[in-house]
Design a protein that fits this description.
By secondary structure, the protein is an alpha+beta fold. The protein is built from 11 helices and 10 strands. A hairpin with a 2-residue loop joins β2 and β3.
């Protein structure tokens, strides 16, 4: 199998990396982090101008028809920069729900605003006490003539505090954990009560409260009561993107550590000259390259039509990336010494992001269980 990038993919990788290198150093990131919105609207505009917001969508919908490798390369670059922008929540999660579930008319209404950067979307599915069970939905939707009324709440909606619209799951039939009876709705954020906050790695999220929110039936995405398979696909695509991002995060944390080892002196010499520490740096590199292979595997399998094969692949990748991120992050911080956990040191922020990636959509222990239940290790 040929893993060489095509000329177009190389150009994409270089363009995204150049943009981030020129406009997004660690000090600029800290300024965006402390802003009221928590990320850069100017950089978001540049993402739109470059076509990144339309990368995974069909040309018929105004996108660029990019595939899994294009997304992997983009997410790696965002990981290296430790980007705070809502690319994952708006383009990967909400965008995948629209790409896979919305009809042509809905895509015509919503896709241009997303691709052009005029509106931002988020994906609200996680609920309190659900743990990692995607079928656990207590938020309720009931018919009201030609509309629906939604009541309930969603927790930890990534960038839900700054989204213009939010794709929300709600149940209109069955018990709280039944696989049937769940639908997805596009809801105007102005109709939702939101509590925004900053997460441990600096990104933004929000808890949502729906108090009899009225949603037209035309804003329901996909077949009524059969949304769980679409939610599964959105989450699997999201996991594959997170795995790719984690590779970029680990790669940059490793480079920062190597650079530090070349200048930090102990006992009159740089610590990079100590063989034991060189071995630890090499172990980090080996783990990163193994993670890169798993990211490629997850990316390719995320487009697999068979949901059981797709889920098995992304679970294996998510398990490995959680373990790899923990190892690389811990080594990076330890090789920096006490400074590694300070706010002024970049490597600690990279470790926080790796920790957050591990717990999003199931930590490594959860996904190891999923792989074991599948019965086949890749």
């Amino acid at each position: 199998m040929n893993f060489d990038l095509t000329p177009d993919q190389e150009m994409l990788q270089q363009s995204v990396q150049r943009l981030l290198d020129d406009t997004y150093d660690f000090e600029q990131r800290k300024a965006h982090l402390l802003s009221s919105q928590g990320w850069s609207t100017e950089l978001w505009r540049q993402f739109a101008d470059m076509g990144l917001l339309g990368l995974p969508f069909a040309e018929a919908d105004g996108g660029f028809g990019g595939g899994a490798v294009d997304i992997m390369l983009t997410m790696e670059s965002l990981g290296r920069a430790l980007s705070l922008e809502p690319y994952f929540s708006a383009v990967i999660l909400a965008g995948t729900a629209l790409k896979r579930g919305a009809d042509a008319g809905q895509r015509g209404r919503w896709m241009p605003a997303l691709i052009e950067g005029r509106e931002r979307y988020a994906f609200g599915h996680v609920e309190r006490s659900a743990r990692y069970d995607l079928a656990h939905v207590r938020t309720r939707a009931r018919r009201d003539g030609s509309s629906w009324r939604i009541s309930g709440g969603k927790d930890f909606v990534l960038h839900g505090d700054s989204a213009d619209k939010i794709i929300v799951s709600a149940r209109h039939a069955g018990a709280d954990t039944d696989r049937e009876g769940i639908s997805l709705f596009m809801v105007d954020a102005a109709a939702i009560r939101r509590r925004g906050y900053r997460t441990q790695d600096g990104t933004r999220a929000a808890d949502l409260l729906f108090d009899d929110v009225l949603v037209p039936d035309g804003d329901r995405i996909g077949e009524a009561g059969a949304a769980l398979s679409l939610i599964d696909a959105v989450v699997d695509t999201g996991i594959a993107a997170l795995v790719a991002e984690a590779v970029g995060v680990m790669e940059r944390a490793h480079q920062i550590t190597i650079d530090y080892m070349k200048i930090r002196k102990q006992f009159g010499t740089t610590i990079g000259s100590f063989q034991a520490l060189q071995h630890r740096a090499v172990d980090m590199l080996v783990m990163i390259e193994q993670a890169r292979s798993m990211a490629m595997y997850a990316g390719m399998m995320s487009e697999q039509a068979d949901p059981s094969q797709r889920r098995q692949a992304v679970a294996a990748a998510k398990f490995f990336i959680g373990r790899a991120g923990k190892f690389v992050g811990e080594q990076a911080v330890q090789l920096h010494g006490g400074i590694g956990v300070t706010e002024e040191c970049a490597v600690g922020h990279y470790f926080r992001r790796l920790t957050m990636i591990d717990v999003l959509f199931g930590d490594s222990s959860h996904h190891l269980t999923q792989v074991a239940r599948g019965g086949v290790l890749p």
